[in-house]
Write a structure and sequence with these properties.
The chain has no helices and 16 strands. The protein is mainly β. A five-stranded antiparallel sheet has the order 9-8-7-10-11, with no helix packed on it. A five-stranded antiparallel sheet has the order 14-13-12-15-16, with no helix packed on it. Strand 3 and strand 4 (36-43) form a beta hairpin.
């Protein structure tokens, strides 16, 4: 049985019948009272974010999770379709399980987190940074580069990303999938 001393960032625990991933954690020690362990938790099977506090040494219930590499195939009425890179089995998952569906493109490599107790997919994670091609962008105004001015640009997946004025249509850019922000221009 695991205790609060085993908590780590990224761990998935079962709490009140739902699964949560540990985003951040810490310990509060006071002179008179017993130490407390706190954690910020993000729902895996729901979209809630909560904070939880335990007494030091309390039992927690971690869930064993397996991370498998899948490839995004296409989206249809059944959801987002992925193929296992090893067994070539295909699964269809709902949009709520994909962490950044607006940046998914065909043949994109993703990680699918699978609950080993139920063998059910829990979430789909894209790589932290991906390269996308800009399909539409207004030209930048010459001389307007004194400040870090951004303009909207549409990428190949249909998502809109704010990019610096010097980035033009047809260029490749690196995008942070967690924040949706422009990172850098990529040379071909």
């Amino acid at each position: 049985m695991a205790t609060t001393s085993d908590i780590s960032r990224g761990m998935i625990i079962k709490l009140d019948g739902s699964l949560y991933t540990v985003v951040e954690f810490g310990e509060n020690k006071t002179a008179r009272a017993a130490a407390k362990v706190w954690a910020k938790l993000k729902g895996v099977d729901n979209s809630r974010s909560i904070e939880k506090t335990w007494n030091s040494g309390d039992n927690i219930f971690p869930v064993r999770v397996e991370r498998k590499n899948y490839q995004f195939l296409y989206k249809d009425d059944s959801g987002y379709n992925f193929m296992d890179n090893e067994t070539f089995e295909q699964i269809a998952l709902g949009e709520e399980l994909v962490d950044a569906p607006q940046f998914l493109k065909e043949a994109q490599e993703v990680s699918v987190l699978i609950n080993t107790e139920t063998e059910q997919p829990m979430s789909v994670e894209l790589p932290d940074k991906i390269v996308l091609k800009i399909t539409y962008s207004e030209p930048g105004v010459k001389g307007d580069t004194a400040t870090r001015t951004l303009k909207p640009a549409t990428v190949e997946t249909g998502a809109t990303v704010n990019v610096p004025l010097f980035v033009n249509e047809g260029e490749l850019i690196r995008v942070n999938t967690k924040t949706g922000e422009y990172v850098e221009r990529v040379k071909e």
